Amino acid sequence: MANSAEVPIAYQAYTSAAVPEWLNKGDNAWQMTSATLVGLQSVPGLVILYGSIVKKKWAVNSAFMALYAFAAVVLCWVIWAYKMSFGEKLLPCWGKAGPALDQKFLIKQAALLATKHQFHNGTVETPMATPYYPMASMVWFQCVFAAITLILLAGSLLGRMNIKAWMIFVPLWLTFSYTVGAFSLWGGGFLYHWGVMDYSGGYVIHLSSGIAGITAAYWVGPRSKIDRESFPPNNVLLMLAGAGLLWMGWAGFNGGDPYAANIDSSMAVLNTNICAATSLLVWTWLDVIFFEKPSVIGAVQGMITGLVCITPGAGLVQGWAAIVMGVLSGSVPWFTMMIVHKRWTLLQKIDDTLGVFHTHAVAGYLGGILTGLFAEPQLCALFLPVTNSRGGVYGGVGGVQFLKQIVGGGFIIGWNIVVTSIICVVIRFIIPLRMPENELEIGDDAVHGEEAYALWGDGEKYDPTKHGFSSDDQTQHGKASSGATQVV
């Protein structure tokens, strides 16, 4: 046993190795907490929300699509995708692939992940910002962002995509689409150098998932006719629990992006909640005014559009701007979903199950454009590598910033339409994108051999040995002993 005099010496040696002088334990703790909050948005947040907001016969399949995507992204991220997003430049929009598993790489001090904007003579325009924590913290933080993007995309495809095709789609889309947006806007790519603002993923995550989702929905095809006509949520209260995890987890989503527990982080969290609350209320009142009833699902959609809209500017705008953005995020996506969607033939033909195009693509692009209007100059200086950046309402070069935001979003839209289409066409040569008709008719039991609830109900094929109705019940439901299909 070591004597008492040796213990402090051993502890000192351990401390100097595990907690080096450059490490800021507060920043590191907040970064890991933020990453955990974002992870909880997906697992269990969106797993619960997806499993509850769909028809009962698709509860297991929808939840599993989210769970599978999270696990697949984690492995792909550390093996090759992280460095494609935040590593050395291969192309102006893409980094070189490589593993993020080397211990020396993971424990070293994290330098700024993006190469700073440089002049032709090699000088740096703004000082380098340096997060004072291990690179491992950053790898995990960015990993959960990548994972939630695929899960959000899945919302467009619920209720009919072949699960085996989804298993192939996830790593392909992560590799050829997500990493390009992440590197271009965050990792030192051409949009980053040009000064396009995306504080926490309005473009990288939400615009890309919304556009890719509706594009993939086009290639996969629609749900069965009966599912498109009637698709009631199987558990509204449980859906609210998932939505609540999503809202509260957004504190890590936006609050972790300054890479420090600082003033900007606090502002981002406050602005996030201001915008989300405002958007929820506006969406609810629009439902009351035009449909005479406040919809719970509508309120959740308004909450999500508010969270999405503030994301590209959470740490760049003042509180009053967050309220304005909340009003617009509660009304513009409401208008595109409730009015435009019902009158535009193209949108009617594409079956976007959860309306991800409206809640994420429309709200994300709207937020990016509004950030170009409302970004406050001093806050921009804390975030952007380009000096004198500001939103349009602050004059000067603000008008240029507004145009940059439009162009930056346009690149994300174009890339995702093209690449997602290519991925779907390639997969289609290997395996059908859409489930066969017998699986579409039955649902979870046919796809997974499992069901969400120990009940017989919506969309299941009747089996008298399994469901055990009495003769009176069979007569009431119009059942014959031969086992005809009954849809409730």
TrEMBL record:
It is a multi-pass membrane protein. The chain crosses the membrane at residues 29-51, 63-82, 138-158, 165-191, 203-221, 233-253, 265-284, 296-314, 320-340, 361-386, 406-431. Residues 466-476 have a biased composition (Basic and acidic residues). Its main location: membrane. InterPro entries: Ammonium/urea_transptr (IPR029020), Ammonium_transpt (IPR001905), Ammonium_transpt_CS (IPR018047), NH4_transpt_AmtB-like_dom (IPR024041). Residues 477-488 have a biased composition (Polar residues). One of its GO terms (cellular component) is plasma membrane. Residues 466-488 are annotated as: Disordered. Keywords: Ammonia transport, Membrane, Transmembrane, Transmembrane helix, Transport. It holds the Pfam family Ammonium_transp. It is found in: Cell membrane. It comes from the Eukaryota. GO terms for molecular function: ammonium channel activity. Residues 29-453 form the Ammonium transporter AmtB-like domain. Belongs to the ammonia transporter channel (TC 1.A.11.2) family. This is Ammonium transporter. It comes from Olea europaea subsp. europaea. The lineage of its organism: Eukaryota, Viridiplantae, Streptophyta, Embryophyta, Tracheophyta.
